[in-house]
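Hi V.,

You were right to ask for the full record rather than a summary. Here it is.
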Amino acid sequence: MLTLAVEQWIGNAAAVLSGAWGSVTRRSEQSGYSRTAIYTHAERVVQAVASEQAGGLSYEELWAENERLRAANQELWQAWAEAEDLSEAKQREVAVSGSAMGLSLTQVVTLLAIVLPWGAVPSRATVGRWVQQAAAQAGAILEVLDRACQARVLALCLDEIFFHREPILMGIEPGSLAWVSGQRGPDRSGASWCKVIEKWPCLEHGIAEAGTGLERGVKLANEARATQVVASVSLVPITMGLDVFHTQRELERALRGVEKRAEHQLDAASEADAKVAQYRRRGCDARGVAGAAGRAWRRAAVLFEEAVQAHEAVEQINAALSWCDSRGYLYSRQTAQGQRDEALAMLKGACWQKAKRLLSDARALRHVDRLHEQLALAVAEPILREALTHLWYLSQAMWQAEGDEQVR
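Predicted structure:
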């Protein structure tokens, strides 16, 4: 609301803008305003005229926009006041979901404190009880689901993972990658593994590392199956194959050791060359250090050649552990075994002993045998079976090539 009449604003501005000598003083005496106030009024009048001439929103439009925003703000505050509080059921859902995703109880409480009033935030102990109750309910549901899918689980990938040195006996169905078993402790002995395996009466094949406890568990399960009959059907013994992951990891570990030894020897040979150069700059007899440098370089050449040969052998073994050769035809056990044995002959040294032991195990290529057995049941004609598998390989290669082209 204006505190001065429009005539007063314009008169004060006119006195300043006229530029006549003494006009501001005479205006001050006439109006009763100080000279400073008159200059301020003139500046505001100039700004108002300039803003009006510049275009844009008018005063009335700005006032209307302000009223609209005030009304919208009031509606939001009203909606917030009438919004339903986060119920305890929703708080439990947030707590259980957060815990399942790996959040600690303290982190869950921190997240709840963001959306709840401080006095309504549950304690850490309360959240812990919610999580324990949900775990008990989930355990009962999982027992029902286990019984429902027992007939569908024909193969399992078995291994242990550790939480604070306590083993978790894991079982993953390889076709769907579904986690179907996760027994917590008490150990990884044969008896503990047998309790895990016996829950799956239709299990035909297991894939695992060459662990003694797991092997013992499979043996105990097969001995128990020999005397059991389920639904008037005798249970078949469980066959075992070694997983490719642990074998390849052991190959990579040994290969890194060979490569590091070659790198260290190359560094030592370079240092020996630098020492020879230093002797020569000083005018000293460098024949002794030059001989040592030559021997270092010859040793480096030998280790480098071993590293290259080992790298080629590891690539050949990895290819033999896959399903198809470079032309897209399925490996037979004889072909894969011959390629594997040829590569193993190239690996020298004690660092390859564990990898060689795993690869020499007959179960290392059990996945190839099992694949051919399943394909033979699906397609009896060998020529048709080979053609179909080769067509599948080509279609997969084309699909991957299209994906690579899209990425580029």
